[in-house]
Amino acid sequence: MTSSTLAKAAESAATDAANPLGSAPGYKWLVDDNNVNMAMAPPPPKAVTIDAQPQTVTVDLHRTALIVVDMQNDFCAKGGWVDHLGLDHTPDRAPIEPLQKLLPVLRKAGVHVIWLNWGNRPDLKNMAPNQLHLYKPKGVGIGLGEPLPGSGARVLQKDSWAAAVVDELKQEPEDIHVDKYRISGFWDTPLDSILRNLGTKTILFAGVNTDQCVLHSLTDANFLGYGCLLVEDCCATTSPGYCVEATLFNVKKCFGFVTHSSNVIEAISGAHPTA
């Protein structure tokens, strides 16, 4: 056995004897009585190229996350808040089917799935009047935290039926959940800290509403330095069509890239692998 082999064997034994600290697979410390090893190598890149607009995008799946925004009963289910407001909630259900296909593929590839949902405090103490006015502009009707007729579930309140992810989208134990309290998921939340701890560089965005919570979470992610891809068929809105057109235009022009779930699945399947 050569000296190099012996050294590697000794290093491996020392690593096995050390205690890992850290919840992110790509960033841990190894500690023992005498040493704190901060030099753990990240996993090697797992690069794939995704067809997108305005350009194709090559991403490292080990440093990519999917953020699913607000696929909650209040927006997407009969008897939810949007339904009780007299609006047609069915457009917000459009992402369900493509997400059912995309989510298992991403999980199998090691991409982190993050559910970013409204999950307000019962006392709404972190909600300024301007935020409450947004959803109750004349001071009447059903606003945030108020009970829905029939079920009594409180609008977008954490742990209520109203704020739960729709039944059709299966959540897994390894998925990550982040509550949000604004149209952007980065304000007053730990989302950025979680993404950075995971080593995330690229974010795929899905959910509702395309032109509101999805867009503003995406733009804030862009401002924070993340590469952003909007997965168009995994997003939806109850807003007029021109709102979607403007969103797609601005994402492609200023904030990132637009792709389709089939492009992501095809890239991960190995149709267009990149070494």
TrEMBL record:
UniProt KW Kinase keyword: no
CDD domains xrefs: cysteine_hydrolases
GO molecular function: hydrolase activity
Domain of life of the native organism: Bacteria
A Pfam family per the record: Isochorismatase
Domain Isochorismatase-like: 64-260
Statement: the UniProt record of this protein carries the keyword Hydrolase: yes
This protein's UniProt keywords: Hydrolase
PANTHER family: FAMILY HYDROLASE, PUTATIVE (AFU_ORTHOLOGUE AFUA_2G08700)-RELATED, PEROXYUREIDOACRYLATE/UREIDOACRYLATE AMIDOHYDROLASE-RELATED
Protein name, entry field: Nicotinamidase-related amidase
